Amino acid sequence: MTTTASNPRETSAGLTTTRAPFIEQAKSEGRLYIEQPYELYTPANHDAWRRLYARMADRWQKYANHRFLQGIENLCLDPMHVPPLEAVNRFMAPLTGFRAKAVSGYVPAYMFFDCLRQREFPTTITIRDGEVLDYLPEPDIFHDIAGHVPMHTDKAFADTLVLFGECARAAAERAQVVADEHERVRRMTSVIKAMARFFWFTIEFGLMKGTRPGELKAYGSGLLSSYGELEHCIESPDVQRWPFQLEWVVNQSFEIDHYQPLLFVVDSFDHLFSEVGRLADWVTAGKLDNVSPGEPAISATDLASFLGAAT
């Protein structure tokens, strides 16, 4: 549904992050899942996409995992224009069954993971202001489509995301067996924190061994959509890069407002898949009920989404 902005300045904003009347109306009406009103993208929105894409191209070739590069080709992304999600899905769905699903804003944690289980990826449709390409107050369509979605064309990675969704469902179901409400909330908070840390250090900021001895490549979308951090994560001597160990990852806090000082390296996508399987086993066995405190904080909305799914 197309809306009419209240003044020319709002109209000119199009679908710019934090300044999109269409998104604000959808939120006010309680609509989380929406259509992509492609006609609302302005020339400035498309120019922001063009500039973001152009400056990433060389860095992707140098630092990105080869399956990400193949994914870029598989999606036939237009470097000049914000992509229609319909076109993205036309190329992606036949490969792995995944589809990009437009959303108006933040998706509560359980709902997000359950979308992955159903091979749907909640996708932001706004794009950052072209005047501040490096400033991203929240995810935008460049982060989601150019950062995340190319990996969703790979079967092994797609299956890993589905297994992550199954892990979330197991966590919600396990909460049902805890009779005491305070203890149920405490355990669920710990499990969500562990899952958030795992997702952060793999799907968002994961590194993987390359094909040559000592070589590292990025596969995490937070790295692959960041011009500065993609180079920094591989080249900087200030970054700690440790072999992936599940017990380390689920107990490692992180902060989101600066380059990551510590990253974890998996051997392969098969290794990543097996670690998500172990994560699910640890949920069932109660090994995530007492992870270390610290970031990320778990919001009441995310906690309620898991507890609500359990009932």
Distance between the termini: 34 Å
Q: Give the count of helical stretches.
A: 14
Sheet-strand content, in percent, reads 5-15%
Highest-level CATH class: Mainly Alpha
Side by side, the strands of the main sheet go 4-3-6-5
Stretches where pLDDT is under 50 for at least 5 consecutive residues are: 1-11
Characterization of this structure:
- With 311 residues, the protein is an alpha/beta fold.
- It has a single domain (31-310), classed as Phenylalanine Hydroxylase, CATH 1.10.800.
- It is built from 14 helices and six strands.
- It has helices at residues 8-13, 21-28, 43-63, 66-75, 85-96, 109-117, 141-148, 155-174, 181-204, 221-224, 227-235, 246-249, 269-285, 300-310, and strands spanning 99-103, 120-124, 207-209, 216-218, 240-243, 262-266.
- The strands form two sheets. It has a four-stranded mixed β-sheet with strand order 4-3-6-5. A two-stranded parallel ribbon has the order 1-2.
- Strand 5 (240-243), helix 12 (246-249) and strand 6 form a beta-alpha-beta unit.
- The two termini are 34 Å apart.
Describe the structure concisely.
This protein starts with 7 loop residues before the first helix and ends with a helix.
Write the layout of secondary structure elements.
Elements: H1 8-13, H2 21-28, H3 43-63, H4 66-75, H5 85-96, E1 99-103, H6 109-117, E2 120-124, H7 141-148, H8 155-174, H9 181-204, E3 207-209, E4 216-218, H10 221-224, H11 227-235, E5 240-243, H12 246-249, E6 262-266, H13 269-285, H14 300-310
Parallel strand pairs: 1-2, 3-6, 5-6
Antiparallel strand pairs: 3-4
